[in-house]
Amino acid sequence: MTRTAILSDIHGNLTALKAVLAHIETQNVDRIVCLGDVVGYGPQPCECLDLVMQFGFCVLGNHDSSALFDPEGFNAAAEQAIFWTRSKLENHAGDPNEQPGASRRRMDFLCGLPRTKREENTLFVHGSPRGPTNEYVMPEDIQNSKKMEKLFSLVPHLCFQGHTHVPGIFTTELTFVRPSDLVDGYDVSDPSARLMINVGSVGQPRDLDPRSCYVVYDRQRVFYHRVEYDIEDTVAKIEAEPELDNFLGYRLREGR
Q: In the predicted model, what is the mean pLDDT of residues 88-115?
């Protein structure tokens, strides 16, 4: 039975990504996949991309897209960060370990990312099954029955997604199951059930828990994992980059 580790929203936070990858090594997984937003906000986009390029697959996130094209709907700090990120991707100068052609390989990788990935009755997106790159599905959307009905009509059985940085499982009964409500994972073995599963964020959690979040999926159950990492290391790296707003680091301490 294939065991898959599913990550999302790394956002250039290499310290968090390395901590998560170390934890994944203890989970006996067969592969690792990513639901996008490898870059944006964080101080080490190139290093994060180099690791994600080794994963089973990755889909396109809105920040990944904005690193290639002009961002839309970003606040000032996010916009400034994505332009800085683009400059780093285009010319990662000053790194003695940089390999010839590495910048081109990273850009080619981003350019080739699909908006969706489907395996049998399982869909993988960044945002939602309707808006794979940009649409947010928030916990409070369970109050919006029309929106949820439309989204679930596009879900074959399971849809894994990220984008909101808030982990949890949406059901067709219009409930939102938070990871803290789960004791031994969540049963997804009923093929007639339809679920949208937000895997949370590795690099910038926003559910007031500063620990990184990811899931392991074994075709029968989904297990959430929270991983502590050295937040102050990432904060210091952001502070060291004049073009990155220090708030992007400080918010990590509170998971918001």
A: 83
